[in-house]
Design the sequence.
């Protein structure tokens, strides 16, 4: 066993951030579910609920890119725990509003914009800090753990649903406040390598911020491999947000399927992601084959998306399990490789730009799917989008393969 393999992954810093993220994500899963129910229960209006959803997602287009230069100049650990403290206070305010019957839609809408901004900035800071806490030779393992966090948090939604039915919404928001407070307290103990931090923070002004912002865009333009990866994932997010927007309506309106079957079929995807993350924690991919594996996964998932709704339910479930298994493989290769490739002092700007572009792609995909779903048979639209996903993988990733291989095919 070489020296690289002997270095432990579960250092104090990595353990604190991982546990804090688990707690925060559990709170986010509950809060996303609970706030949506709160709006519907108190307003009874689908339009007001839609406005609320837009208000939450709009900051995710703007804030990541704006936050990137700041995150590349100031302590990321401090940004993370400060945002968690603020989140704890916000959810405590919502709990108090409900407890004292002070609900106000306008106030909740403002809080929603603030929460959406916090979530988007937190993700950029987290993605930028996380690689600095990973010991050498453990990138693949670390991101296999990261890939299991979302499926784990998704399991909280049924628990939140039970609480809503049996004890009401107030305890859910109190639970959120305590989870974020708990996470923030532990995150204050992170001692990270923050070598990117300015020695004189007071000298950071608007002109310097603008220069940093331009440097981030210029960096992405000259890094051809990152440019191809980002372009593909913008299109990928557009397509898969489109299909996910239409799947539930298709199940709901199709005789013999329904919401329960939808839950079972999609649940197998979550199980696949969990198992895939565990497998990747134990085993490494051959370095020289990472691009080939990722490319095959991109095409395979798109073809699964195009075809599974034409098959019996049992086969659908099996295909969604495989899709989840492959999806976490794609995620692990992409994020571990790009975060390893991007210099520490540039990570905030790259992650912010990537998040902004993919979020915008996702919103456009949902809107496109909604328009097409009203005009054409839903299953045909999903099939067409899936085929388009496979075509885009071929059209974008193959021409850029030599550049992308330089990022993917690296020993981590």
Sequence:
């Amino acid at each position: 066993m070489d020296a690289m393999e002997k270095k432990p992954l579960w250092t104090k810093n990595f353990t604190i951030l991982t546990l804090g993220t688990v707690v925060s994500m559990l709170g986010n899963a509950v809060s996303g579910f609970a706030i949506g129910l709160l709006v519907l229960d108190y307003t009874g209006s689908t339009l007001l609920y839609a406005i609320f959803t837009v208000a939450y997602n709009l900051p995710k287009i703007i804030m990541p890119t704006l936050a990137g230069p700041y995150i590349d100049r100031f302590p990321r650990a401090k940004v993370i725990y400060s945002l968690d403290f603020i989140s704890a206070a916000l959810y405590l305010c919502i709990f108090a509003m409900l407890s004292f019957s002070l609900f106000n839609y306008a106030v909740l809408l403002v809080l929603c914009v603030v929460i959406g901004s916090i979530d988007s900035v937190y993700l950029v800071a987290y993605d930028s800090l996380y690689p600095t806490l990973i010991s050498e030779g453990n990138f693949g393992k670390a991101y296999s753990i990261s890939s299991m966090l979302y499926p784990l948090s998704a399991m909280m939604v049924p628990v939140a649903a039970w609480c809503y039915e049996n004890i009401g919404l107030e305890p859910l928001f109190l639970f959120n406040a305590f989870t974020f407070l708990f996470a923030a307290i532990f995150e204050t103990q992170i001692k990270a390598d923050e070598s990117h931090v300015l020695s004189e923070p007071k000298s950071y002004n608007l002109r310097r911020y603008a220069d940093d912002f331009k440097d981030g865009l210029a960096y992405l333009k000259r890094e051809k491999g990152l440019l191809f990866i980002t372009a593909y994932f913008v299109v990928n997010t557009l397509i898969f947000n489109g299909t996910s927007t239409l799947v539930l309506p298709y199940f709901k309106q199709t005789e013999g399927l329904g919401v329960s079957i939808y839950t079972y079929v999609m649940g197998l995807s979550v199980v696949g992601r969990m198992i895939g993350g565990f497998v990747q924690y134990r085993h490494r991919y051959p370095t020289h084959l990472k691009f080939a594996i990722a490319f095959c996964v991109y095409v395979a998932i798109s073809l699964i998306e195009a075809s599974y709704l034409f098959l019996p339910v049992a086969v659908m479930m099996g295909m969604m399990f495989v899709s989840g298994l492959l999806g976490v493989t794609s995620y692990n290769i992409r994020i571990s490789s790009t975060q390893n490739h991007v210099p520490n002092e540039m990570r905030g700007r790259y992650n912010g730009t990537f998040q902004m572009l993919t979020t915008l792609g996702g919103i456009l995909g949902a809107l496109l799917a909604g328009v097409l779903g009203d005009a054409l048979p839903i299953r045909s639209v999903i099939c067409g989008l899936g085929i388009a996903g496979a075509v885009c993988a071929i059209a974008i990733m193959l021409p850029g393969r030599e550049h992308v291989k330089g990022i993917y095919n690296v020993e981590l």
The chain has a mean pLDDT of 86. Residues 214-412 form a domain with the Growth Hormone; Chain: A; fold (CATH 1.20.1250.20). Residues 306 and 386 are 4 Å apart (CA to CA). The two ends are 16 Å apart (CA to CA).
